[in-house]
């Protein structure tokens, strides 16, 4: 038993099926070994599964979804054929939006792939929001409210979104509802196509997380670390 556990601890990003470009990009940041939540989440997300990942703050949940998400788009920039973004990463705060945006931008630059990412921020004017989306980004990092604004103002076409959206991430899901984004997420969920892969990251389990899970995810894998019971 001890040996098996040790094997798991030694598992590398390569063994999880990650692309060499991503592994090299991580190495530049001195990130060499996956964290426990990354070890379990990355292979499932690469397979296209819906995942709920619950692990404490600081356990590496951002890369757990960003790495497989980017890899999914490596072969081909989705925006070449899509009229709306292929991925939305929804976060509860402006600070987190900036943090995730920097992380994904730095990985894209480091991997030298043609993927476009934008962040939508609540203080952006309508014309700034419009400009951001007009550049046909592949990935959008935003609060749920900004996405909703873009949908109601016609900057994002619901029909185009239904055709193009292939990954939806709810990061810090435990905070998304307590910050009052329930209605925005509900409105957006009406445009999320069935085949869209949905990922929910959270530090705690709460009724709010359960609510979001029911609203958005289809039969997800539930990963809880450390495992309880
Ligand atoms: P969480 O979202 O679970 O709170 P983060 O994704 O913000 O955690 O990661 C916390 C910190 O750990 C970040 O500074 C991140 O760069 C770092 N980190 C993530 N994955 C690894 C890893 N595999 N090895 C070392 N550091 C990591
Ligand atoms: Mg986080």
Report what the structure shows.
It comes from Rehmannia glutinosa (Chinese foxglove). This is RNA helicase. Residues 11-39 form the DEAD-box RNA helicase Q domain. A motif (Q motif) lies at residues 11-39. Residues 42-223 form the Helicase ATP-binding domain. By secondary structure, the chain is of the alpha/beta class. It has one domain: 3-Layer(aba) Sandwich (Rossmann fold). The protein is 48% helix and 14% strand. It contains eleven helices and seven strands. Strands 3-4-2-5-6-1-7 form a seven-stranded parallel β-sheet, with helices on both faces. α3 (36-46) packs parallel to α4 and α7 (144-152) crosses α10 (182-189). The radius of gyration is 17 Å and the shape is globular. It starts with a helix and ends with a strand. The mean pLDDT is 91. The chain binds adenosine-5'-diphosphate and magnesium ion (MG). Magnesium ion binds next to α4. Adenosine-5'-diphosphate (ADP) is lined by residues 31, 33-35, 38, 55, 57-63.
Quick summary:
48% of the residues lie in helices and 14% in strands. Magnesium ion binds next to helix 4. Belongs to the DEAD box helicase family. DDX56/DBP9 subfamily.
- Stretches where pLDDT is under 50 for at least 5 consecutive residues are none
What is the count of helical runs? 11
Distance between the termini: 18 Å
| CATH architectural category | 3-Layer(aba) Sandwich
Find the CATH topology. Rossmann fold
- The CATH class label is Alpha Beta
The overall strand count is 7
Q: Compute the gyration radius: what is it? A: 17 Å
Average pLDDT over all residues: 91
The percent range for strand residues is 5-15%
Domain Helicase ATP-binding: 42-223
Family: Belongs to the DEAD box helicase family. DDX56/DBP9 subfamily.
Protein name: RNA helicase
Motif (Q motif): 11-39
